[in-house]
Amino acid sequence: MSLIRFHGLLLLALLLSGCTLEQSYNQYQIPTRQNQPGQQGAVAELQRNAREALSRSDYQQAVEYLQRAIKIEPRNPRSWHYLAETYWRSGDNRRCIEMVERSFSYSSSADDLDHANQQLREICQQG
Amino acid sequence: MAGKSRRSKTASRPSSKKQRKKPASTRPPRNWRKIAGYLLLAMVVGLSVYLGYLNHLINARFEGDTWALPSRVYARALELYPGLALTREQLEYELGLSSYLRVESQPLAGQYRRLGESVELHARAFDFTGERQSARLLQVFFDRGRVSALTDSRGGGDLKLFRLPPVIIGSYYPDNGEDRLLLSEDEIPQALVDALIAVEDRKFYQHHGLSPKSILRALLANLEAGRTVQGGSTLTQQLAKNMFLTPEKSLLRKINEAFMALLLELRFSKHAIVTAYINEVFLLQQNRIAIHGFARASRMLFRRSVEHLEPQHLALLIGMVKGPSRYNPFKSPEQATQRRNLVLKIMLEQGLLEAQPYAAASSAPLGIVDRLPGVNPFPAYLDLVKRQLRTGYSSDELARRGLRVFTAFDPLLQRNLELGLANGLRRFEQPELQAAVVITDYLSGDVLALVSDRETDFPGFNRALMAQRPIGSLIKPLLLYSLLQGDLTLASLVRDQPIRIRQSDGKVWEPRNYDRQLHGEMSLYQAFIQSYNLPFVTLGVDGGLEALAQNLARIGLLKHDVVYPSMLLGTTEMSAYEVAQMFQVIANNGYFTPLTTIRSVSDQQHRSLERIPLESHKLFDQARMIQVQRAMIGVAESGTASYLGQRFAGRKIAGKTGTTDSARDSWFAGFSQRLLSVVWLGRDDNQPINLSGASGALRVWSDIMQQQGFESFRLSRDGSLKWRNVNPLNGGIVQQSCANGVLLPFPQGRLPSRKSACP
């Protein structure tokens, strides 16, 4: 909950300071889950690799990692969210919206991801 | 040149009468000289053209695609990680498909060993699209049917994840049926080159393509014997013959061979020639496929890469060069052993082998696999891959360009499918009964396993894709969705009563229930789980039919422009594959993900040609689809598929049975948390099989899932739905404590208000 509050305040502050939605999303960092055993550990590893690839703007590689993560744990909303973000950053807004919808369908409303999903959906719809 | 032409001009002009009277015998007539000159010129031109032609042939092969390489189709790469449901036996099966060799000592690349309950394996290096993975020695630990840990054997650290290089599940071969794996110059072990030269052409490094001494020696030996007992060909001549010429024994062929050998030596280094030889030479016949080159033959015979061949293996392969049929180690093990030992002796004499290893190698068994792996053991899946590939690649490209096609095929699941199907079909004792099964991951759209014939490795008619059959009650889940788009809920009261419909051609259609009984009034849920026809026809003609047609069209499965009422009972024909696509959308909460086998394609240099991204289109409303899924769980709990409830007690499955007129087709489509499987049973001649969906396909489906194991299906949470305990017989609300009530989802604002006694 504190994470949501923090991001909410961050978003508000950014909006008040005249930031665009896209700029505010760029400030918004969703922490990757770390140090988890088993399946989630494997998925977290792939998500981390994907984030690294994304930071290098290597979109194809990021998609590759995320699709592997989704094969292992298909109902992980984070993987779908990252995939949506990767498509957005590579300029594919249609796919971004499709993937963000899937992320929504697997996340609960209490999930801190929900907010990021809403933002990303708006950005991709505007684009 | 000017002088020559002047002389020639002078010679051709008559100079005097006296000269003309000279007898012809003292000087050749000028015409003859002229003819001889022309002949000489023609011969020079002819030879030049001939050599140019040979050179062109060499260029075309060496500088273009030297060999037509079959395209390889790969299964999914098995991701190993702690927690993965996998037994040691399953891992060993997967390794066996990849030609890994089980050893007792520390494994080399492509080998594994058992260490207690764990497996230590040396995974080969592999070029995944966009990422090269090095060879790695790792240990996999198991506990109660799962991978419990994964460690790096060298570094000793825990691994979170390791991607096992994928199994090759088939190849698309060139028309000549040749199969080979290519080795580059630096991949060929020197021991292979040395031994090959020692046996086939000891003077290889001294000659320029031809060895006159060897030819003479062979000629004398052959004359003495009165038949061909010795060949005088150099390695380069053999290469020329194998690559460019026919095997006929004629003088012209020998001349061509000699010139080509000279040209090859002129154009290419010795190393390049020996590399080409090692890749080209024919070594083994496997049904209609000819295995060329040491790399492929080594993988097939010994499950080893060439760098891991021991002297006895090298010697066997080199020995087979002389006569692939005569020294075939499967057909003639004794002759093959003798030949191998002769090669080993030459290696010893030539100083390539010490006495002790020679003795060990000579007494070693042949060490070949028990039998060669089958060619394309998964024909139905491979056929589907080819159909999906053809949109981007021609058959010729597939057969020649050595493409690498990465698919979603799961060999472990396919094995369970085949075993389960065999068990399932055995119970019916109908030899004419045919089957098609499609198993998909409905969340990603991946087609994981496929069977299109009761003989699963028979490469015939692909029933799973091509056999269009009426789907019967398999239409009802989408029809139920269409009805829920109106005012109805699962608790709505419907009537199971006779109905007569006059069709556009004037005929009257009078549908009946499968049991030919009437059941009166009941909830829509009850009508669905019991698959009663009459309520659905009644509701369908009141508006559901149009909605159904629209929904079918959304998935791309509306096959006719004209909509008939009989569509409400599934007279629409579909293949099992199309049915799987329809249920993919239902299982995936209304998200349409096109079914696909292919994930990516790369060329032989591992450059990515194509990646097929995950698609996900929201076609239907999630909350409404969850209501359909709930009703499908009811089918398995207490409806027409209640057999599942008994067989897999405690585990939830969503499914639907389907039977067509006179029991000609038996269908079952069902899904668990991850897998969607569609089973069709029927006969090719469309005769009745006397099996309903419940008594036929459902049983086979259960046998497959029993073999595979599965996770219970869980409905997604959806905030817009409210759950109520309902009497399934009349749709009335019952108390929460009523054990015979069923919990059903309702959209807010459409909650049932009628109350009912506990049934």
Give a description of the structure.
- The complex is a heterodimer of chains A (127) and B (759).
- In chain A, helix 3 (38-55) runs parallel beside helix 5.
- Chain A is globular and about 40 Å long.
- Chain A has helices at 2-16, 21-27, 38-55, 59-72, 77-89, 93-106, 113-126.
- Chain A is built from seven helices and no strands.
- Chain B has 24 helices and 32 strands.
- In chain B, strand 28 and strand 29 form a beta hairpin.
- Chains A and B meet through helix 3, helix 4 and helix 6 of A and strand 27 of B.
Q: Note the quaternary state here.
A: heterodimer
Unreliably modeled segments of chain A: 13-18
For the residues shown, what is the average pLDDT of chain A?
80
- Biggest beta sheet attributes of chain B: 5 strands, mixed
**Cα-atom Rg of chain B, whole angstroms?**
36 Å
Largest interface comes to: A-B, 29 and 32 residues
Q: Could you give the distance between the termini of chain A?
A: 30 Å
Q: Are there runs of chain B of 5+ residues with pLDDT below 50, and where?
A: 1-21
How many strands of chain B?
Answer: 32
Secondary structure tally, helices of chain B:
24
What is the number of helices of chain A?
A: 7
Question: Whole-number average pLDDT of chain B?
Answer: 89
Strand order of the largest sheet of chain B: 11-1-15-25-26
Shape, per Cα inertia axes of chain B? elongated
Helix content of chain A: over 70%
Order of helices and strands of chain A: HHHHHHH
The Cα radius of gyration of chain A reads 14 Å
Output the structural class of chain B: alpha+beta
Strand residues, percent of chain A: under 5%
